[in-house]
Amino acid sequence: MSTTERDLRWWAAANYLTVAQIYLRDNPLLRDELTAGHIKPRLLGHWGTSPGLSMIYTVLNRLIRETGQDCLYVTGPGHGGPALVANAYLEGTYSEIYPEVSRDLAGLTRLVRRFSTPGGIPSHVSVQTPGSVHEGGELGYALAHATGAAFDHRDLLVACVIGDGEAETGPLAASWKAPSFLDPRRDGTVLPILHLNGYKISGPTVFGRASDEDLTGFLRAQGWDPVVVSGDDPAAVYADLHARMTEAQARIADLRAGTATRWPAIVLRTPKGWTGPATVDGVPVTGTHRSHQVPLSGVRENPEHLALLAEWLRSYRPDELFDADGALVADVAALAPQGDKRMSATPYADGGRLLRPLPLPPLDKYAVQVHGPGSVEHGNTAPIGELLRDVYAATTTEDGGGTFRLFCPDETASNRLQAVFEETDRCLRAEVLPTDEHLSPHGRVMEVLSEHLCEGWLEGYLLTGRHGLFATYEAFAMVSASMLIQHAKWLQHAATLPWRSSVASLNVLLTSTCWRNDHNGFSHQGPGLIDTAIPLSPDVVRVWLPPDANTALSITRHCLESRDHVNLIVVDKQPHTQFLTLEEAERHCAAGASVWDWAGTEDGDQPDVVLAAAGDVPTQEVLAAAKLLREYVPYLRVRVVNVVDLMGLLPPADHPHGFPDARFAELFTEDADVVFAFHGYPRAVHQLLHGRVNPGRFHVRGFSEQGTTTTPFDMVVLNRMSRYHLVLEALRRARRAPERGAELAAHCRAMLDRHEAYVREHFEDMPEIRDWQWA
C-alpha cells in the first residue's frame, strides 16, 4: 500500500466520524442495521467544508511526520468543527483530555452523542476542541489570528485555512497584508490555504467564481507566492497538495536565508461536500450550496434518506478502519504524529503552557511627581509609553523576537506612547525612506490602520503564550468590538476546562477619548466599547477608569500581570491635572474607589450630597464643582468619591469585584443623593447599579451623544456634565437647601451663558476654565 493510499484511510476515518457526529446518537460503527432511533432528533453541524479540512489535516500530519515541524492548524471555516474533533479523536488527544470519550465503541458512542447536543460541545472549532485557538463561528478573523500566532514563534508553521465565504469579509480582506509584517528572521510561518468550494450557505462565492489567474494575481499583489491545487480525485489532490506543502517548506527556508522574498500560499479547489451524496431527491447536492450544512435532512422521517445515510457512511468502510472493540486500527493510528507534535496536542494551541511572567520594572521610575492634588499637569498616557519601552527592552531576544508587542492603528505617537520608539521601531517589510521615522522591517511595534488586524493579531499572540496591549482611539475600538466579545466568550469557557492553561489578559487601552477628541469632531466621539463590554462574563471583563497618570500606571501594570481577563483601560492622552502620588494611586487602585477627603467638606458628618466621578475628565469637573460648592456654600456637607474600578459598582453577587454592601455604603452612604459624573453613557452606570439599595438616588451625567469640533470645555457643556451642571444638580439633590444656593445657581447659569458666547467669539475656552487649578 502506497503512502497516499495509507493516508487516505485516515482521511476516510475522519470523514466517517464527521458524518457520524452530525447524524448519530447511537450505533456509531453501524454494527447494527441503521434505524431512525439511532438518529439525533436535531441535526446540527456543517458537512460542506469538512472533507477539505480533513484532507488538509491529513497532508499536514504527513509533513509533520517527515520533518518534525511544529504546526498549528487554524480553521477559518469554524463550522467544520466535527472534522477537527474527528481528527483530534483519531490522534488520541481527545481521549487523553476527555477520558470518558475512550478509544473504543463506548467512547465513540459518547463522541457522537456529545456533538451539538445539550451538555455536549458546540458545532464550531470551539475552546473545547483540542488544538484550537480560533473558534471560527464569526467569520473573518482566521488569518489575523494565524499571523498573531506566528509573530515571535520562529519555529512554528501556522497552517491557516480560509473559506471562500470568509474571504468576502472585511477583516479577512485586510489580513492578506500579513507579508508586510512577518519578519523571516524572528517570526514563524503563516501558510494561507484559500479553500474554495464555491458556495456560501445558499449562494456562490466571489472567489469561487474567480479564475486561477485572477486569484493568484491578487495574492501576489498582497505579497504572497501562491500555487493552485484543484480536483475531485482524492489521491491526485492529496499527492499534489503534499508536493506543494513540501515546496512551501523549501521556500520558507529560502526566505530565512534571504534568497526569497515572498511567503508561500496555496489556493485549494475541491467540491463542496466532497464524498457526500451526489444527489438527494433528484437534486444535485455535492458541489452545490445544498451540502453546506446537513445534506440529508429528513432521515428520521424519510426511509429513502435513511438508506442514503447508511450507504454514505458505509462508503468509508468503517469495518476496515475500526477493530472489533471500536478502536482505530493500528496501521491508521500510526499515521498520527507523536506527543506534542500532534496538532491537537501542540502547546502552541494551549498558550498558557508556553507563557512566562512578564518582567515589569518598578513604577517609581515612571511616576509623575505630585506635591499635593492639582500641583502639576501631565499627560496621562506618556508614562505608560515609558513603561512599555522598558518592557520591550526586558523581553527582546537575541534573534530580535520577544514575548511582548504593542498593537496600534497608526496612533502610537498620537496616543503619546512614543517612548517605545526609543527601544524598537514600527514594523514594515518595505523600503525605508529617509523621511520615515522609527520604521524597520525588524521593528516590533505593530502599526496598521485596521482595528480588526490589531485586535486579531493580539488575540493570536496571547492565545499562543505571549503578552501584549492594543492601544486605539476610543471611538474606533467599536470597529473590532465583536472580536473582543468573541475573545471574552473564549476565555469564559476556557476557565471551565481544567486542561486549558491560563493566558495573558487581553488589554485594550482606549485613549483619544470622547471628551478630548474635540479637535476631530463627532465621528471621533463615542465611548460605546464600555457598554459593549460590561454585560460580558463577570469572571472575564474588567473596566478601569484611572483619573490621572499615576493611577493609569498602576492599572496598566496590574492588567499586564493579570491572566484570563479582558481589561479596558480608559484614559485620555492629553495633559491633565494630576491628583495622586504613586503611593496614593496604588492604594486607590487596589481599593477600586475611594472617598477623597481632601476634596470634600463633610468634616466627619454625614454628607448632604455626594459628588462621584469615574474617568479623568469627569474627575476634573467633579473637583471643580466641589470647589465651587466649597467657595459659595462651605457649610454644605459634600463628599467626593472617585471610582477607578467600574465593575465595583455591581453587587458582589454579580461580579467578583463588586463592592460589598457595607463598602458601598461607606463610599456612597445609604441614603444621600449622588451626583455621578461618568466618562461614558449614563445608562452604563444605571445598569451597574441595578440591585443596589435605592439606586434611584444616583443622578448620572455623562456622554449623551452631543459633540462636534469644539473646545474641550464645550464638550462637557454640550453633554451637560460641566462643573456648572454638576453644581446645579447637587443643589437640587442636597438634603438641605444652602443659604447662598440661589446665588450659586445663578452664577452657574450665568457662566454657562457666558461660555456659549465666549467660545463662539474667541474659539477657545474662557480663561477661568483654561487656567483652572484645584490648589
From TrEMBL:
Q: Extract the Pfam families matched here.
A: XFP, XFP_C, XFP_N
Q: Does the keyword Lyase apply?
A: yes
Q: Which InterPro entries match?
A: THDP-binding, Transketo_C/PFOR_II, Xul5P/Fru6P_PKetolase, Xul5P/Fru6P_PKetolase_C, Xul5P/Fru6P_PKetolase_CS, Xul5P/Fru6P_PKetolase_N
Q: List cofactor names only.
A: thiamine diphosphate
Please report the stretch or stretches of sequence annotated as the Xylulose 5-phosphate/Fructose 6-phosphate phosphoketolase C-terminal domain: 573-774
Q: Where is the Xylulose 5-phosphate/Fructose 6-phosphate phosphoketolase N-terminal domain?
A: 9-353
Q: What Enzyme Commission number(s) appear in the record? A: 4.1.2.22, 4.1.2.9
GO MF term (any one)? phosphoketolase activity
A GO biological process this protein is involved in? Answer: carbohydrate metabolic process
Keywords from UniProt, A to Z, are: Lyase, Thiamine pyrophosphate
Q: Which Gene3D superfamilies match?
A: 3.40.50.920, 3.40.50.970
Specify the domain of life of the species encoding this protein.
Answer: Bacteria
Q: What protein family is recorded?
A: Belongs to the XFP family.
Q: What is this protein called?
A: Xylulose-5-phosphate/fructose-6-phosphate phosphoketolase
